[in-house]
Amino acid sequence: MSDATAQIFLDTDRDLAFRAKWYTGRALIYGALIFWAVISLFPIYWTVTTSFKVAADVMQGNLIPWVDFQPRWLGWRTLGLSPDSIFETSTVREEFLKRFMNSVIISLSASLLAAVLGSLAAYGLSRFSYRFGFMKNSDISFFFLSQLILPPVALALPFLVLYKELDLLDSRIGIILLYTLMVLPLVIWIMRDQFKAIPVELEEAAMVDGLSVWGSFVQIVLPIALPGLVAAFILSLVLTWNEYFFAALLTSTDAKTLPVMVASQTGSQGINWWSMAALSGAAIAPLVVIGIVLERYIIKGMAAGAGK
Amino acid sequence: MAATGQSEGDQLHTVVSDHMSPRRILTGRLLIRFATLVLFAMAIVQALHQSGRISLGFENWRPVLYAYLFWAVAMGVSQVLIRGEQGKRALFVLPAALFVGSMVIFPLLFGLYISFTDWNLASPTGPKFNGLDNVRQMLGDPFYWNALKNMVYYVLAISVEYAIAFGLALLLNAEIRARKFFRVAFLLPLMLSPVAVSWMVGKSMLEIRFGPVASLARFLGWDSPSFFGTPEIARLTIMVMDAWTFIPFMMIMLLAGLQALPKDVLEAAKIDGAKAWQSFWQVIFPLMLPVSITAVIIRIIFKLKLADIIINVTSGGPGGATDSVTSFIFREYRDRSNVGYGTLLAMVYLVVIVIFVTTLLSVVNRWMRGVNEGRTG
Question: A44 in a domain, yes or no?
């Protein structure tokens, strides 16, 4: 009888010890989670707050707006993006918007091109047997995926000379082609997994109904594989938006991208911390938004390779 | 380059009954021959024009690029004309293969040629073949060997990144509230461009006088914090910044692996009364080995390209202590316009990487096979 009551109330020494252990375990887990969340988010917080500081606030290392310091639009005004300067003409803003548009156009086109080329190749390789000379399917796959290993620096200088000869130096097309090459192996890797997971019977049924190979690919297979394709596209977008090495070498005035613009400001001695913060903040903002909104696609894309 | 499909091995079987008229095949053959001829003729004319032997020619090589594009299209069309249904299948892989082929193989061969010349873009004379001079210069270049040595340190740092990433993946896989918030928060560093990270973390937060990290270091008892003063600390700082951006990458791959683990195995480990620590080392960790190896190898491949942060924060300093091979070659070009020598260094690096990665893969494969046999046997 007493045993039964003890079990109802769960307050014997053993139960209490267990509960205490459970609570410490929880506390440790959440402590670790919050600790790492602070590490991950603080630099972003720092950038955003710094862009609203004036020189004195930066020098004192003030942290919390409205408590430590009064936020000002100084950093954004130098970019021409603060409320009071947004309607006035500003050369800095024009420069920034030009670089921003370059980055948008280049990363979107390169990701799109890679998505098209990559998903076609991945589909072909997952469905048909090819032979290009001595190369069979596995060799062709390896040929595509091995591009991942290729360090950009091995291509950079030859491309510098080649693009000069082809009059593609400092042009958007040139950079788009290189970025496509850079993300193509990733797209092929992710999409090969996606297509392998789709049963062949679906296409066979579609062909019985009179669709051609390409027809069944576009109308049946592609819609099913679309989430994977979106994941590959987003991942490509992130990589191409952030790319610095090729852009720094191969662009100068016309096709310069946002990372190159950010980097070129840091070299000078007297740094305007607030305007640098505003510039970096504006450069990372699109990707932070993408990261928050499309997080599950990014995770899906990166997890695609983990199962293999 | 001719693609001959084998229908026997196809995953997707199709019954094809296309009648190929001889005329259609002939058209296809003529088309591809014509395109090849145009491409070669233009390339030769331009080459002769460039070397000054004939006056006929173009301002630059761009028209030859157009001829190549025309050739690529003709190649695709002729495949369909000559081989019908098989040709349509080849069209799936052909664009990507031609693209990668022309963007990788040709530049690499061209790079091989450049690397044995004394080409300097700043000098008025063109490239001149200089035999093994570049190789000799490389062998005596302490900064290049130093950069290679740094790459070893950088790659070794991945073991720590892996441990942290595994820990974070386990945390996210535990039964917690606000899982989505933490997942997004942990993922965000990966979204940021290395250049922005260089500025935000490397220059601003690590600023010695007022940076928050320096303040924290002072609070913790480091009297005069300096993050780029001595070679060891500077290298460590670069490692930490790079780790900060890329830990989410490994974390997500490991998290996906954890979520794919069979639930019954974990249940069985729990019922046996295995302590958490034991069940981790004896059950979870061995099951996670394949995913871990994939994640680490991909991370190594990315690490071997490390450059952006170094170029923007330290420029390789102090005294080349933080230089990666890529950032070193970048400065070799930026400061000295030394294309020939820089390309040779890059080519040597490529060879080193290919040997290293293939050895790594074969060792891992053999080892995994040994583990699997040991488990079944």
Answer: no
